[in-house]
Amino acid sequence: MWTWKEAMTRRSVLQLGLSTAALMTMPPLRWLANADPLHPHFLVMLIADGGWDPTQALDVHDPLDMTDGVDVDVPQAISGLPPSQIATAGGITYMSNPTTRPNVDTFFNTWASKTAVVNGIGTRSTSHDQSRQLVLTGYLDPTRADFAVMAAHKNGTDMPLPHLLLSGQSFGGQFAGLSGRLGGQMGTAIAYNRVGTNSALAVSALGEAYVQQALEWERLHAEAGPSSAVSGKLEAYHDANGRADKLTRLAGALSLNQNSGQQLATSLGNAFKSGLTTSVTVNPFGGFDTHTDNTQQNNSWDRVFSYVNGLVTGLSTQSGLLAPSLLDETTVVVCSEFGRTPQLNGDNGKDHHPWTSMLIVGKGVRGGVSLGMTDSTQEGVKVNFSTGAPDNGGMILDVTNMVAGLVTLMGANSSDYLPTVTPFTAMIA
Question: pLDDT by residue (tens digit) across 202-251?
Fold first, then answer.
């Protein structure tokens, strides 16, 4: 039991900082020591916004076979670009076009052995917002957390900011207290300077309310004694205060640059090693919503693979907490909210399609494999959830199965988070 050893005055509350005072209003959380200190496991989730066309890189279909119903490329007669080719590197079969997407080849030639590609994932929606939520959480339910937040709950609840949202969208669900964005209100909070003994501070009406609440809790605690329910509130406050203090120190010293994969790797290396966070969500690229001129997908895919190659290379060249490299302790997941239709529309673009692919690299990943597949209409086929191979006795791969599999990959028991859902585990080493 922690004992309050210092009289709480208005000034002492202000000296703690409004970031701490704000945390007091959250319901008390039970900080579980779920993480294995001997086997650190970090997560980086990269979101490609707009709905990518998986046939341009991950979902293999013959670009010269016009009978299969899938247009991999805009015809050369229209685009003037050379057609793609089916290529294999390190066990992974993918779509290659060195002229339009050279970084796809660069990445797979370097990192295929640590990479798994999963195709034929059903998103059940072609709405950007709905599909994004489905791909990340498995549900259209605001009480559900996304897999990056669930990973933070498993591996980092004792950290000051278990899940770090750098950009894009995240779903905190029942674990919303574990997630925060460095920017906006959170950025203001962690940049807050402690109050000096002779300095004055002007606080907002909201800040004043936090101060008054803290003072009232201390009064009730003094009146009720250590066995009261109020003591539990102060215990939670003490925990929040320690986390907020650490967050202030760490975040103020970190430059979380996400402009390139190399820069993000350096920033996350500092964030992971300092104990700031264990799970990070970033949305560094878009441009995939190509309803006209599907050749625009080329530059977008090339940027994705350039960024991911820089990130993975950067993680591999930094020493881990215990492992030889930080990549040995980090899983990188790259996804988009849905795919594009099998065939070109009248504007040589592609519309929304409820089947997508994911790219997974790093710790715990069964490398050098292409898993799942789509048929000639670019719809997912039944697969064996343990091997990832097409199997008429298997099941269609739904986003709920994929999310449950990713949670399992991060070391959690998926039934604790997605009860009754069968996890797709073929990408786990």
Answer: 445 555 565 566 566 566 666 666 555 555 555 555 555 556 666 666 66
* Average pLDDT, integer, range 4-12: 40
10 Å Cβ neighbour count for 68? 15
| Positions of CATH 3.40.720.10 in the chain | 42-182+256-416
> How far is 329 from 233, CA to CA, in rounded Å?
36
Whether the predicted pLDDT of 6 surpasses 50: no
Cross-strand partners of 121: 356
119-148 core/surface letters (b: 16 or more CB in 10 A; e: else): bbbbbbbbeeeebbbbbbbbbeeeebbbbb
Helix (H) or strand (E) holding 267: helix 261-274
Rounded Cα distance, 425 and 429, in Å:
9
* Distance, CA of 31 to CA of 72 (rounded, Å): 49
| CATH 3.30.470.10 fits domain 42-182+256-416 | no
pLDDT in tens, 143-179: 999 999 999 999 998 888 999 999 999 999 999 889 8
The number of beta carbons lying within 10 Å of the beta carbon of residue 279 is: 32
- State the first-to-last Cα distance of the chain, in angstroms, to the nearest integer: 42
DSSP string, 355-400: EEEEEEEETTB--SEEE--B-TTS-B--B-TTT-SB-TTSB--BHH
Q: Among residues of the chain, what percentage have pLDDT more than 70?
A: 74
Q: Name residues whose C-beta falls within 8 Å of residue 217's C-beta, 6 or more positions apart in sequence.
A: 24, 230, 233, 234, 237
